[in-house]
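@channel sequence for tomorrow's demo:
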Amino acid sequence: MSPVPVEAVINIKNVAVNKAEDMVKKEKERMLFNKAPERGKQMLKGGSCHPLTFPLDFYSGNSELKGRSNYILTMMRWNMKFIFSMILAGVGILLINSIAQAIEPGEVPPKVVLKEKLGGRLDGKPWSSEELQGKVHVLFYVDPDEKDTNNHVSEALNNEKFPDEKIHYFGIINMAATWMPNFAINMALKEKQERYPKTTYLRDNKKVLVQSWKIADDRSDVLAFDKKGKLFFIKEGKLTAAEVQRLIKAVRDNL
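structure tokens (generated this afternoon):
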């Protein structure tokens, strides 16, 4: 597990402190020039007040304005509590992200199910990653904006003419990774499914695989699994010619 970066926590703290100081500064300026400009100017010039006790320093000896000073301090304390709760929330997010690890070769990835609002097959039926067993499976996880990035990979695999009973292909579309309207993507997918019947096209509407498997978002990722569902190849982004040949060899070795 990767430790939480200390720099990240410090950055969150600095942002919170700067926000609080800015808030106090604006309140000081408003009080100085709207309520008692002469007294306020003297206090600022003489440096006789502390930022967090300024309202009390400013209103001391003035019973008419003491009530407002108490109100201001109460609001400042509430805002400080809110800011520090944001710090704790940020640290919590960093901890969660440090615990989560991407899948690695030799592992069976956590089970994911694409169904209903999460996605699934083009006909609306659900899909489970437990289907990645019984034969070799090559899975393309694609941002629609990167649909052509690894076309050379699918072409190279098709040229190998691996037996259908030993290999199957999945094309999972990361629907949430693009500005393109869903109806346009769905039309393109249906055409592709008819043109390439040996590939099963799926929709991931909520980045389920990105979150569960920690694979790269907004890219074209290529993953390959053996007969037991174990990952034996992964590449996030465009494959080089050498990587394509390595994938082909790995597929052949696992058939």
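heads up for whoever presents: The longest helix spans residues 63-99.
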